[in-house]
Amino acid sequence: MRIAPFRFDVTPPAGHPLCGGWIQPAVDVDDALEAIGFVLLGAGKPIVVCAVDWTGILNDAHVAWREAIAVAAETTPDRVAVQCVHQHDAPFVCLHAEKLVAEQQAGLRVVEMEFFRTCLGRARDAVKAALPNARALTHVAHGEGKVIEVAGNRRMARDANGKVLKMRGSACKDAELIAMPEGLIDPMLKTVAFYDGAEKIVACHYYATHPMSHYGQGHVSSDFVGLARKRRQKEEPDCTHIYFTGCAGNVAAGKYNDGSPEARVRLTQRIYDGIVASGKMLTPSRIENVSWRTHDILPPTNPVFIAEKLRAMLADPKNVAANRIRPAMTLGWMQRLENRTPIVLSALHVDGVSLLHLPAECFVEYQLRAQKIAAGRFLATAAYGDGGPWYIPVKEEYPHGGYEVSVANCSDETDGILMRGIRELLG
Ligand SMILES: [Zn+2]
Which listed residue, of 28, 100, 159, 361, carries a Cα 20 to 30 Å from 145's Cα? Predict the structure, then answer.
């Protein structure tokens, strides 16, 4: 087997919408956004896994990314996993929403199509250029390190019936919310590394938290998780370091982050420390077996969303940008359902190590459940693949409301549908 790492730039130009056009567009670049991945050759048709420093890639846009990479790698799109890291001073792309918003002629933008196509071209070029330089893939290793004082559950403030009263977001200044415990998180940063003999070629890192320290002023950044990755990359230039965001739909840094520039530095250090700690545990073992599994899902729309009402919200000039663009994205999901375009879940199994690729903003419960299902194996979970569903709460959280539930494009049946898929991939 062989492995071919690749990377390319996906930094938007000045003026490009950020976070799908809800916040200040790009003014300048604090640090570049990258797409980083690897092609695995020799286990059937090529397999590609890629992480992108964008907020999200939804529906048709996600299909377009996987198709572009598949063509370049000479494989099929079902063997390509594209996962976002979910920074917010970054592009958030739904092509259907862009079309609907453009039709309004209200000056709203989700994504600039020329930039989007440029990124697909760079993806093709980077993958094609990587293939002739593929290295032998002989060994795999895994490790984990506890991350201290970064993640906390966002849904801690509840009434006696469990209803969520207020959210502990990415940055928080509410003393009552800060004082509450971390709540349900997955504290472990996991690493899976691939080797050519004794030489580490690719290291994939996984941690479940929203990755924002501060955002909204137009300063494009890969934020604290990207900065930690870049620091490690500089120290180990011969190994390609990739960072994936796990199931972080209900997890963020608010308990430990006041949104200041200093907090970004502190959070960067803590993720970096987790990467280093995890790296210390890596003990390569010879690879015997590699397989790729997929499972298609197409969960139904959340019944609270009525197309006619969404179109009215989109058309209402009194609404702020977010309240016009978000309905357009929900309409994008509905269109996708009509087109019967499935979401592809996937898992890469390398002996006793599994990489699981899930869509959108899954709650952390999903990766904890997946770890139980995969008991006896080392499981690393990347979420934020196809972003069409937006938040994916667990079924029991729907009645408890809160922001995440209010913007979940799919119904509570998604829980069962997703879990069947996860069992299929890991069983
Ligand atoms: Zn989010």
Answer: 361
pLDDT digits (tens, 9 = 90+) for 61-105: 999 999 999 999 999 999 999 999 999 999 999 999 999 999 999
For 210-268, write each residue's pLDDT tens digit. Answer: 999 999 999 999 999 999 999 999 999 999 999 999 999 999 999 999 999 999 999 99
Ion ligand 1 residues within 5 Å by Cβ: 361
402 CA distance to ligand 1 centroid (A)?
Answer: 13
CA 19 / ligand 1 centre spacing (Å): 10
Cα–ligand 1 centroid distance for 117 (angstroms): 24
Rounded to an integer, what distance in angstroms lies between the CA atom of residue 347 and that of residue 65?
A: 18
Q: How close is the Cα of 294 to the center of ligand 1, in Å? A: 25
Query: What amino acid is encoded at 166 in this protein?
Result: K
Rounded to the nearest angstrom, the distance between the alpha carbon of 78 and the centre of ligand 1 is 25
Q: Which tens digits make up the pLDDT trace of 119-176?
A: 999 999 999 999 999 999 999 999 999 999 999 999 999 999 999 999 999 999 999 9
| DSSP secondary structure letter of residue 388 | T
Question: Per 3-state DSSP, what percentage of the chain is helix, strand, and coil (rounded to 5)?
Answer: 35, 25, 35
Contact 11, 35 (CB under 8 A): no
Cβ-proximal residues to 293 (8 Å cutoff; 6+ apart), any chain? 346, 347, 349, 424, 425
d(CA 290, CA 355): 11
Separation between Cα atoms, residue 414 and residue 362, nearest integer Å: 10
Q: How far is the CA of 170 from the centre of ligand 1 (A)?
A: 9
